[in-house]
Structure formats: C-alpha cells, structure tokens
C-alpha cells in the first residue's frame, strides 16, 4: 500500500466493503481519458503486515 496523500480511493470490488451505500453516480475521467462512474461509497478495512 502506498500513501499518496489521497483521502478517497476507488475500487471495483464492492464485496470488500465493511459498510456500503448507493449514491447517485459520479463520473470521473482517468489520465488516459477513459471515463468511469462511482455508484456507491463506504469503508474498506485494509490490513498491512507489521
């Protein structure tokens, strides 16, 4: 895991969310100009080795 300083992240893996709620879709554009939409938000538990 790399700390980029970003406070929000996107993932396609809805099953990994501890909490999840649907939201109105928000469209984003990647650096390669591809667009995609966020359709939910919640919390994901990230475990890292000590």
Count of helix runs: 0
Beta-strand fraction estimate: over 45%
List unreliable stretches of 5+ residues: none
Order of H and E elements: EE
The amount of helix comes to under 10%
- In round numbers, the mean pLDDT is 89
Distance between the termini: 13 Å
Give the tally of β-strands.
2
Order of strands in the sheet with most strands: 1-2
> Could you give a short account of the major beta sheet?
2 strands, antiparallel
Specify the structural class.
mainly beta
Rg estimate, integer Å: 13 Å
What gross morphology would you assign?
flat
Could you characterize the architecture of this molecule?
The chain has 50 residues and is an all-beta fold. It has a domain at 17-44. Helices cover 0% and strands 46% of the residues. The protein has strands at 17-29, 35-44. Strand 1 and strand 2 (35-44) form a beta hairpin. The radius of gyration is 13 Å and the shape is flat.
List keywords for this structure.
PolX-like_BBD; 50 residues; mainly beta; two-stranded antiparallel ribbon; Retrovirus-related Pol polyprotein from transposon TNT 1-94-like beta-barrel domain-containing protein
Secondary structure blueprint with pairings:
Elements: E1 17-29, E2 35-44
Protein name: Retrovirus-related Pol polyprotein from transposon TNT 1-94-like beta-barrel domain-containing protein
Organism: Armillaria borealis
InterPro entries: PolX-like_BBD
Brief rundown of the structure:
With 50 residues, this protein is an all-beta fold. Helix content is 0%, strand content 46%.
């Amino acid at each position: 895991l790399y700390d980029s300083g970003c406070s929000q992240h996107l993932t396609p893996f809805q099953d990994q969310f501890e909490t999840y709620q649907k939201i109105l879709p928000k469209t984003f554009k990647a650096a390669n100009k591809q667009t995609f939409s966020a359709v939910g938000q919640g919390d994901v538990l990230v475990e890292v080795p000590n």
